[in-house]
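User: Second chain of the day. Same drill as before.
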Amino acid sequence: MNDKARTLSLLGGSSDDADKLGRLLAARPDSAWRTGPASNADVLIVDVDSVYGHMDWLKAQSSGRIVIALSAGDAHGAEHRLRKPVTPATLFELLDQVAAPASNGHAAPGTPRPAAA
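Assistant: Same format as last time:
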């Protein structure tokens, strides 16, 4: 396992969706990403098409973490979007994109900024 492993969690998705996400991550064994509980996740993937998806997305926005909207539609207002159906290419392209600022010393998207004095 990569010593710089990052954790992501799926909110609002079905157990089948979570299993598929786990399989997609496992298909790339050199990946720094793994699934885990939302309470400890670096990145939250929110299925905004689910019954409570929009509320989950709004709540996740205030968590200080990177939030990715998972949707078959456009997911208006989301900084990061992952379109259904998820493919390995689209998943890892987006994960690489959101991880890049954190790996080069800059604040990751979604990181709270200090208040102005």
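The first strand starts at residue 6 and ends at 11.

User: Great, on to the next one.
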